[in-house]
Amino acid sequence: MSAHGKLPIYEQFFTWQGEGIHQGRSAYFIRTFGCPVHCPWCDSAGTWHPDFVPKTIEKIHPKDLIDNAQKHNASIVVVTGGEPTIHDLNELCTLCSEANLPIHLETSGAFEIKGQFDWITLSPKEWKSPILKNIHLANEIKLIVDSNSAIKQWVENFPDIADVETVWLHPEWSKRNDADILDTITQWIKDHGDPYRAGYQIHKLFSADQKDSHSKPNVPLGGDIKLGF
Fold this sequence. Notes:
Largest sheet: 9 strands, mixed
Radius of gyration: 17 Å
CATH architecture of the domain at 7-142 and 207-227: Alpha-Beta Barrel
Strand order of the largest sheet: 3-1-2-4-5-6-7-8-9
Order of helices and strands: EEEHEHEEHEHEHEH
Helix content: 10-25%
Mean pLDDT: 94
Structural class: alpha/beta
Strand content: 15-25%
CATH class of the domain at 7-142 and 207-227: Alpha Beta
Number of strands: 9
Number of helices: 6
CATH superfamily of the domain at 7-142 and 207-227: Aldolase class I
Low-confidence stretches: none
């Protein structure tokens, strides 16, 4: 964040939360710009991928962001990215608290979390490992299942994941119709039970985000190295 307290914002829009425990709640999404993790199937490639980065990024004061959320009467504010924790989010959190507006964070967990959040969703990525402390801070974990071995590898490498109250198993979106991936998720849940639950990006079935004209279209890369990763 700059000396003037502004945050680089890729997009902000009003929709509903399509994933996790808070699925279905009206939500004002604030997507910060920038991400050093570079997941090849990122839905928000415009936050980092050179082929999609916009020519200019608006820097907005946290108060203006929260004012926008309040105008829409959102139930929650969701801060995501890119990777939002590369920015200092303390002021944004403080303003949300003063406005009695719950603020949620979606993060890879790879960087220090700066700010007090009401809810933290941690979705670890193999390209930059999560900080153990952040796993302990998470209210829920979202594992992206992009291979038949993904769940097992995450749990073996970071056993503390199993201590989080809810662990969602999401098929990577480009593989949402892959029977092997879906069967892997199903079998893991049947074999292990809680805290594991099947997850999905329900908002995409509704095209919910696109109902707000301020929402930018997704440009998923699908792990195609020819696209720059």
